[in-house]
Amino acid sequence: MVKVNHFQLYGLRKEKYQWLAQNDLATTEWKELKPEAPFHLFVPQDTALLSEYGQGWKIAEIMPVNSVGVVTGQDEETIAFTKEAANQLARAHGIAGDKVKKILYRPFDERFIIYDRKVVTRTRPEVMRHMMAGENLGLISARSNKSGEMNHFFCTRYIMETKCGESTTQSCVFPLYLHPDPAKPLGEKRDWPLGKEGRWPNLDKKFVDEFSKRLGMEFDSTLSADKSVCGPKDGKYGPEDVFNYIYAIFHSPEYRRRYAEFLKIDFPRVPMTANKKLFQKLCELGGELVTWHLFENEPSGRSIARRAVSYPVSGESRVEKGFPKYDDAKARVFINKDQYFDGVPQEVWNFYIGGYQVAVKWLKDRRGRSLSHDDLAHYQKIVVALSETIRLMAEIDKTINAFGAWPEAFSRK
User: Fold this and answer.
1) Mean pLDDT, the chain, as a whole number?
2) Domain coordinates of the chain in residue numbers?
């Protein structure tokens, strides 16, 4: 019988070399491992909640058509901040301008890509075509997460770059809807009737059947969400209700903390609830989160002012080297020594999505550029959206706790 021992050493290189020079196999404090199914990991893992977590459905099984994001191999030559700049790149490559498409590059950072195999290493057309064929909504997550926080969750209306949703590894996009393939005039195998634009939901029928049975509700695959009212209606629920429910679950701070050990190493799993009221409320909260993340609940100038987010000093608005910098005493984000965004809460400045400190990353990527009027407004909207995200995440946990907390709120009763 093979015995597996494990030891892990953290620290600076000099400190690790010093430790190694002073120790050997005999003096190392080994921890014996007993790898268990299904992962058989050769690192320590707390498996106390594995059985509980394993009762949920893996997102890659719920939404079976998915893939990692687009890989260019040369971002600077294929992706630009503006459509005009992307068209210039396309002309330089001898590629038609209609190949330029909008892409979500990082959270809240939409850019333009020359979507052509001549210059893009992996276009992932089998999945990305569904995000371009018509109206759609994509869930962003990842199969693993090597960072300390489980925050690899976002959404998009567009195709997605592979590092968009997780900085430490590749992230994946899961389209909510599938569109007909023009190359298959006789049709494709599907479990659902055609809906708007001839599309159908990318949802596993066994999952939907089990969820419907638990809820005692009917699933309508053609039901489109009313953008003014989130949540199921008239005893029925539709694809976007499922999406919003899942999105709320993934934004529960307790879910991320409770199942962190497993979220690090595989696709996230989704627990089902049998409680209609909890389902309804999570649909509403998840739907509200989606609208903020897509800027479809886009804050107007008035709502930004109401939240006291401002940009009071006029000038070139150039993001200088060494910036952005945060003044925690005054809640200001400086982009150079004179100009700043005022009224940025510290919790927003420190908030991460996909391993990225969003309020920092968006500006850092624009160092050396002068921000346009639209750029300045966009950053203020990011601040508002992150504030709302923090509020809604707390509300999601509060709601789940009101229905029995984890895991009771997701029991079969």
Assistant:
1) 90
2) 4-46, 301-393
